[in-house]
Each structure stands twice: as structure tokens, then as C-alpha cells.
From TrEMBL:
Bias-annotated ranges (Basic and acidic residues): 397-409
Transmembrane segments: 12-30, 42-62, 74-92, 131-152, 158-183, 280-301, 307-331, 343-362, 368-388
Topology in the lipid bilayer: Multi-pass membrane protein
InterPro entries to which the protein is assigned, alphabetical: MFS, MFS_dom, MFS_trans_sf, MFS_Transporter
Protein name: MFS transporter
Superkingdom to which the source organism belongs: Bacteria
PROSITE patterns listed in its UniProt record: MFS
Major facilitator superfamily (MFS) profile domain ranges (all copies): 218-417
Entry keywords, A to Z: Membrane, Transmembrane, Transmembrane helix
Gene3D superfamilies cross-referenced by the UniProt entry: MFS general substrate transporter like domains (1.20.1250.20)
Major localization listed first in the record, in broad terms: membrane
The keyword DNA-binding is annotated on this UniProt entry: no
Chain positions covered by the region annotation Disordered: 188-209, 397-417
Length: 417
């Protein structure tokens, strides 16, 4: 199984990278998309909100779909659809075409996000140690690549379809080839000796009945952490440039730096984050991440100038980067016999946070102040401290929240890797 798992891990990491590239190419070229289709400022928020709403629908649909179709197959075919929809956004001529392309993009992204994280959670269970952050690090790297490609397209004033077409032509066949090595949970268990899905502990049985049921009451703390993490992330994505320019008085060019710094520090934090989880445990890493993120928002809110503001956004990248991967991993540990269902439901709150975060800061900035608005996600992110114990692996057996190799009693044995 060693080679099978390693190939599965590498191919899944590449899928995360491809998704990071695609999403960055979309969101960083929103002004160009608006100009191409003549979308008014009043109508633009409706288009932007439709994508996460439809992605949530796609995630819910994936929960039902994987009852009969392996997550690997959902991922294999949803990723090309995302890339083709991206190309459709860049190649269309009329607003109706844009609406259709964004609708397809949103639905496919929901299925893609859910299935990717399902496979990541099951692979981490097979490895018996924290590897989830490495997948999200690949996504961050893809985001940096996509943002860089978008900058090149904007700098050379390339038509959107000219910017998108080479990316799609390269990444789509590569993703399809890589999908040959995806490893589903059933493949892991079928190849492992003496590891069966019906060998679940008494504590695990209370969380899921072995048929895919998930207690929303037990999942709710993780849903709240996921929501506040994406409120923080969407605040940086949507408001960092405006905040630096309008509040801290930076130049337009300097105002583009915070998001790039945020993405780089997110990549760095996720690259080393798995080692932190293995050494100190998920609870400690989540608590530290929440405190660093809250400190980052505090620094941003009180920054006297642009350079201190950029320091705050740097801290935000280091703090927020660990929360989402660890939340997915915790859902897999909490519901070992229903991890796919738990991940799909949890993934919906990704989009809930995205929908809340951007308008929340905008409204508070208009009626109060943008400095004050930054204090709201600072307080919300501390929810992760309140529910940090939900990240404890096997709390009924282990103390301290440290990662331990999984054994047959939770149906996901370590394969000695």
C-alpha cells in the first residue's frame, strides 16, 4: 500500500493545486470580467454571491452522490467542468452566457471542494498522521500561481479567453491523468489487512451509526469554526487592498501587496503546519492559529500606517491557514464511519462564511468605520478557542489532543507510513 498511498497523496495534492489556480484566475480578474460583460456595480454583488450559493448546493448534492459513486469519480469529472466553466467565463459574449458559466462553475466547485476534502480526510486516516495541511498548502501554491498568471494577463492587456485557454489546455489533461491514482476509502480498507468498516469503537458508534448518519449537534462546533475562518479569509480577500489604500493611505500599487503576502504566509504556514500537529496536537495548533489570527486583525485595526498594516495581514495568513484543514480533519475523526457525509456538510459552511464576511465588513465600514469593522472578525475568530476541544483526536482514549496512529477500532488503520 505504500506506493498506492503515496501516488494517491501526490495526485490529490495536484488536484488541490489546480483548483487553487482556477479559483485565483476567476477572482483576481473580476474587474476585467465586469468590463467585458458590462456588469454594473449594482448587479455585480448578485453575480458574486451566486457562486458560493450554488457551490453550497453542489456540496449538498455531493453528499448524496457519494452514497453510490466514489468521491474519486466525483472529483475526476468535476475538476474538468470547473476549468471549462472558467474558460466559458472568459470566452462568452453576453451577460446570459456569463450567468450560465458562473452557475456551472459554482455547482462544480461545490462538488470539487467536497470530494477533494473527502479524499484528503480518508488519506489522512490511512496514513495515521496529519497530512491534511499539505493538501491545502498545494491549494495556496496554486492560488499564488493563478494570481501571478492573472497579473501577466492584466499587464499585457490580454483578452480573458487568451489568458485562460493555455491554462485550461495544460491543466485539464494533467488533472485527468493524475486522477488515475486517486485512492478512495474503500480502496484503502479493501487492501488493508483486518481493517473493516464494521470494526468501529463504541464512542464512534455514538457519532455515526455506520450507515452514514451524522449528528449535526456534534458537528455544529466545527461548522462554526469553519464559518468564522472563512469570514476572516473573505475579509482579507475582499477588503485588504481597499483598507490599505483608503484607510492607511498607501499607493494603489502597494495596496495589492497584502493579499499576496497573505497567500505566501498561508502557504508557509500550511507547509509546516502538519509537523506542528504531529508534535503538539491539533488542539494546540488550532488555538495558536486563532490567537495569531485575532492578533493580526487587532494589528490591522490599529495600524498607524501601511507597513504595520501589512504586518497584520501577514499574521492573519499564519493564523487562519491552519483552521480550515484541521476542521475537515476533525470531522473525519469525529465521524470515522461517516466522514464523507460530515465533510460534505461541513464544506457548506465554507460558503456561508464567504457570504457573510465580505458584506459584513462592507456594511460596518460604511455605517461605522473600517477600522472598527476589522474588530468584528477578530472577535468571531476566537470562537475557535471556545471549541478547540472538538479537534481532539479520539478524546475517549487519548489525552492532550496529539495525533496518534489510527487502529482497527475506528476503521482506519495506519499502514506503517
Amino acid at each position: 500500500m505504500t506506493d498506492v498511498l503515496r501516488r494517491g497523496r501526490a495526485s490529490l495534492a495536484f488536484a488541490f493545486l489546480v483548483q487553487g489556480v482556477a479559483f485565483a484566475l476567476l477572482v483576481t480578474r473580476i474587474p476585467a470580467i465586469q468590463d467585458r460583460y458590462g456588469v454594473s456595480d449594482a448587479l455585480l454583488p448578485a453575480f458574486l454571491a451566486a457562486v458560493p450559493v450554488l457551490a453550497g448546493i453542489g456540496s449538498v448534492a455531493t453528499e448524496r452522490l457519494v452514497k453510490g459513486v466514489p468521491p474519486s469519480r466525483v472529483l475526476r469529472w468535476s475538476q474538468p467542468v470547473v476549468l471549462l466553466a472558467l474558460l466559458g467565463v472568459g470566452a462568452g459574449e453576453h451577460m446570459a452566457g456569463l450567468a450560465v458559466a458562473l452557475a456551472v462553475f459554482g455547482l462544480a466547485v461545490g462538488a470539487l471542494d467536497a470530494s477533494m476534502n473527502m479524499l484528503g480526510v480518508s488519506l489522512q486516516g490511512a496514513y495515521g498522521r496529519s497530512i491534511m495541511l499539505s493538501f491545502h498548502a498545494a491549494y495556496s501554491l496554486g492560488g499564488i500561481v493563478g494570481a501571478s498568471l492573472a497579473w501577466v494577463g492584466a499587464h499585457w492587456q490580454l483578452a480573458l479567453w487568451v489568458s485562460y485557454l493555455p491554462v485550461v489546455l495544460v491543466l485539464m489533461p494533467a488533472a485527468l491523468i493524475g486522477s488515475r491514482w486517486y485512492v478512495d476509502q474503500e480502496q484503502q480498507e479493501g487492501r488493508g489487512k483486518g481493517r473493516h468498516r464494521d470494526g468501529v469503537s463504541g464512542a464512534a458508534s455514538e457519532r455515526g451509526d455506520g450507515t452514514g448518519s451524522v449528528s449535526f449537534k456534534l458537528l455544529l462546533p466545527l461548522c462554526l469554526v469553519m464559518t468564522v475562518a472563512y469570514i476572516g479569509d473573505s475579509t482579507v480577500s475582499n477588503w485588504s487592498a481597499k483598507y490599505l489604500q483608503d484607510v492607511l493611505g498607501s499607493s494603489e500599487q502597494t495596496a495589492t501587496v497584502p493579499y499576496n503576502v497573505y497567500m505566501v504566509t498561508t502557504l508557509l504556514g500550511r507547509t509546516i503546519g502538519d509537523f506542528g500537529v504531529r508534535r503538539f496536537g491539533a488542539v494546540v495548533v488550532v488555538r495558536a492559529g486563532a490567537l495569531v489570527a485575532a492578533a493580526g486583525f487587532a494589528v490591522v485595526a490599529g495600524a498607524p500606517g501601511e507597513w504595520v498594516g501589512m504586518l497584520g495581514f501577514t499574521l492573519l495568513g499564519l493564523g487562519l491557514c491552519v483552521l480550515v484543514p484541521q476542521t475537515f480533519a476533525a470531522a473525519g475523526r469525529l465521524f470515522p464511519e461517516a466522514s464523507d457525509v460530515a465533510v460534505a456538510r461541513l464544506n457548506v459552511f465554507n460558503y456561508v462564511g464567504f457570504l457573510i464576511g465580505s458584506p459584513l465588513v462592507g456594511v460596518l465600514g460604511d455605517v461605522w468605520s473600517y477600522r472598527g469593522a476589522m474588530l468584528v472578525p477578530m472577535v468571531l475568530i476566537l470562537v475557535a478557542l471556545v471549541y478547540a476541544r472538538s479537534f481532539t483526536p479520539e478524546p475517549d482514549r487519548y489525552g492532550g489532543g496529539h495525533e496518534r496512529p489510527r487502529t482497527a477500532d475506528v476503521g482506519r488503520g495506519s499502514h506503517g507510513l
